[in-house]
Structure formats: C-alpha cells, structure tokens
Amino acid sequence: MNEERSMGLRLLCILMGTAATVGSAWAFDVVGSQACATCHPAAFRIWKAGKHARSFEVLSTAQSASSRCLTCHSPNASEAGVTCESCHGGGQFYLKRPVMKDRELARLVGLIDPSEKTCRSCHDGATPSLKAFDFQASMAAIDHWTKDRLLRAPSSTP
Asked: FRET partner for 48 with CA separation of 20 to 30 A, picked from 5, 40, 83, 101?
C-alpha cells in the first residue's frame, strides 16, 4: 500500500513538474530563501554570509536598474541577490519535507543540482570580472553542503 501511494505521488509530481520549466524559477514557484532556512539553517547561514546573498548590494544605482545586471545579480524578482532558488530552482513543488526526503522525486519536480554550466550562465567571458572564473575554487568558496563546512557555519540564527 505504501509503495502504491509513493508511486501515485511520484506520478502526480511528474505531471505537476511538466507544468513548470525545470531549470528556471518562475515568479509563481519561488518560495524565498527563508523557507529553505527552516530545514537547512546551517546552509542558510553560510549563504547569508556569502557574496551571492549580497550580490545585489554591490550594484550601482544605474546597474540596479539594468535588466542586464539583474539577470545575474538578482534573478528572482521577489528577493534581492542570488538566492537558494537562483541556483536550485523554484521550490514550490519540492519544498515539502516528504518530497525533499525523496531525492529523485525532488529533482523530478524542480530541484536542481547546480553544475558548472549553471554557474557559467552568469560567470562567463562577458562577466565584468578582474579574474577568470575557476569552477572548482568557486564551489569550494560557496560550499554550504559538506559536513566539514557545516561544522564551520556561522553560529548566528537565521
């Protein structure tokens, strides 16, 4: 019975997932980083202390009005900065704990495991940066998922 229920839930989520474009967060499916903090408080604190959370703040007044800049510095109109959902996809369909506990199901309904391609959609040759983008070094700098990094997470509450 439990297996039948799980299969039915998966089928329902697959159908729901076809309605959403996997890989991009739409305004209606973004739940906000604070929703992620509920279950992932250490990862949230690490993100909040990092450059992605403050990416909108570094823009000049003119840049903050430019869609070219906002595409990368604040891609989700509902929240400033590069948020959890900027990289992991809109959480509306994978937010609930039962879905998140099933990795395959979460991915079917929109959870993205960011790759080098995901990062390079903003960190590319056209990025006005003084140094070249090093994917491996950059991933280490934003690490918010390994046990070692979680042990070193800032201790303030989300």
From this structure: 101
How many C-beta neighbours within 10 Å does residue 110 have? 27
Contacts of 140 (CB under 8 A, 6+ apart): none
Residue 104 near residue 9, CB atoms below 8 Å: no
| Residue 155 amino acid letter | S
Burial (CB count <10 Å: 0-12, 13-18, 19+), residue 85: buried
Mean pLDDT, contiguous 10-residue spans, the chain (158 residues):
59 49 57 95 94 95 94 92 96 94 94 94 83 90 86 65
What whole-number distance in Å separates Cα of residue 22 and Cα of residue 70?
Answer: 21
Q: Rounded to an integer, what distance in angstroms lies between the CA atom of residue 71 and that of residue 122?
A: 8
Among 22, 7, 2, CA closest to 111:
22
